[in-house]
Design goal:
40% of the residues lie in helices and 23% in strands. The protein has a two-stranded antiparallel ribbon with strand order 1-2. By secondary structure, it is of the alpha+beta class. The chain has one domain.
Length: 53
Amino acid sequence: MTLKVYIKDRDEVEEMILEEYLKGVVAAEMPADFELEALRHRLLLPVPMYTEE
């Protein structure tokens, strides 16, 4: 599955694979030194806003 993601710094919309998007979300929101289990839970509970076309 792919998503269209707005990249604010470049003022562009980029198509991303869902897994890559989720990695970026977790990396942006949580420090890498968090417990692995906390990172896993955050990966399972994302709230992306998307529409299917």
